Every structure is written in C-alpha cells, then in structure tokens.
Amino acid sequence: MMSFWKCIIRSGATALVAAAFMNSPAAGQAAENVAVRLSFTPFAVHIPIYVAKAKGFYERNGLNVDIRPGRGSSFAAMTVGSGQEEFGVADAAAVVTARAKGVPVVAVASFQQDNGAALFATEKSGIQKIEDLKGRNVGLFTGSTTTIFLQALLKKHNMSLDDVKPVTVRSGTDLPLVLAGNIDAEVSIYSNELTAWKIEHPELKFRTWRMQELGFDTPGNSLVTNEDLIRTKPQIVRAFTAATVAGIEYALKNPEEAVGILVKSVPELKTNIEMAKWRSYMGSVTSSATQQRGLGALDQPKWETLVRLLREYGGLQTDVNLNELLRDRYRSLY
User: Fold this and answer.
1) How far is CA 78 from the centre of its chain?
2) pTM for the full model?
3) pLDDT by residue (tens digit) across 163-207?
4) In order of start, what are the domains of the chain with their CATH numbers?
C-alpha cells in the first residue's frame, strides 16, 4: 500500500509548495505588513500559520505577518471581508453566511477538507445508534454549525429537535454537564474538544460518529481574504496563500516540530494535547481534491453540499455564487 506521504507527494503537493517561493521579492525590498485573524484563540488548527511565520515562509515572500487571536469564525469572516485584516481563518459555514449577507469575503485555500464535526454519546448513556437519541439530553450550541449538523442528522433519521431534550450550551460550558451526566450526546469537533477531553478526563468514555461518515461531507476551516485585496494587491494574496500552504505541508511532515512552534508561541497551551489534536486533524487535510490539485484545494462540490444544508437548517436565504466565493488559483506564486 502506498504510504500517506507518498500519496501527498504524488498528489503534487511538493511541487506546489516548491512554487511557494519561486518569485519571492528581491532581498532588501520592504516587507508588506499584513494581519491574519484566527478563528478562535490559537490551537492546533492554526499550526500552519505559526509554522509559516517561524520558518520564514512569509518573510521569504516579502511579508511581515501579525497573527491575531480570534473571537469565532463569524467574527473573522466579517472583519476580513470588510478589510479590517487582510487574511483570516474561518469555518466554511461562517464564510458562506457572511458572503450571503453581502460581505465580500473570499476563500483562497482550505485547511480542512472535512467539517471536523462528530456526534458523540457517553458510554453510560447507552446510546448505540442515532435513533437512540430520541428522548435523551442533547447538547445544543445555539448559532453554531454543529447545531445545523445535528438538525440535519435528526431529519435524516426521521426526527427533529422536538424528539430530543435540548440542553443549551456555550463554549466551555458543555464539559461539566457531560461529566455530571446532564448531557448524553452532542455534536462537537473531534479534533479539538473531543480530543482534549479524552486526555484530560480519561474516565470519560464515549462513542463518536463523524459527520463526514454519516453523509454530511462538507468543508471545514478555510483561509480567507477579501475582494478588495484580490483586486488591488493580488501578489500579496498569492504570497500569503502560497506560504501558508507551505506551512501546511511542513507541519504534516514535521508534526513534533510544528506543535513545538505553536506551543512556544502560545505557552499556555499543553504540548501533549495540541499534539493529539494535530494528529487527529492531519487526516482531514487531504482528500481526493488535494490528490488532484494539491494541498489547500477548495472542493466546490463539498461547498455546494454545505450551501444546501445552510439553506435548509441555517436560515440562509440569499443565493451565494460559489464561483465568486471560491478562488482556488492563489495557492502558488505562478
């Protein structure tokens, strides 16, 4: 069987990353100051950006990059789209929603080829299949993409939120409820919260079903910019995107070093937890789209599936032109 890395090399990723620096600015040329707004406070999903900065990939492309912690994907999509920052990391659903509201945000690369969401059920709940959710206490993160997936999953199995007992949660409030037995199941992010819970609370046992495996194959976190920057400074968009994709490849090939770079930059993070998150996350970076078009490829059919879900469950009412939203030609410098 062909190894994981041979598949990536065969996919053209190495050639793509090699192209990240071919036309970098001449020595001595003034660096362009740009900011990147993260989707949330720093964690493993943001590793490629920290790697690209620490390894000098941005610098080689003539960029001085300011990494700014986030306040959620919706915030990042809105501020980047309005030009307050040049670049950002945002969940695909937030990007589509912002675009539908008239915000000129644009996706230029994908960090994550699946949505990262998973249904979990605690072992003590006795839930063995989706139908067992009926009548159970289910965590509900109002306004989150995870709630959209929960609604879609229930409908697929001839149920709705009326068939479960919703327990409203906010970021960080669900774990105590799960530990206390007040939440039996919830849709969460397998490469973030669920991975950390397994390490910090080994007594907590649960089953997981990834949304991708349950028939909801949509994209996750994406690298975004705005229409104005693409129009006025396309070379900056190319320089940043290409260097970030180089950061993705380097982090995949050198996971221990990559996690170390993140933790050095954000000392409050724990190496063992971020390593586990990154290893869980690595598999979602590649897909058939990246095998054909290289790391960071934007998979339009997956975005089309996402738009359909948002129309049905997320209140999306405005048409979104994906040909204008998805700009997949900035991942190399030529």
Assistant:
1) 16
2) 0.88
3) 999 999 987 899 999 999 999 999 999 999 999 999 999 999 999
4) 4-114+219-325 (3.40.190.10), 117-210 (3.40.190.10)
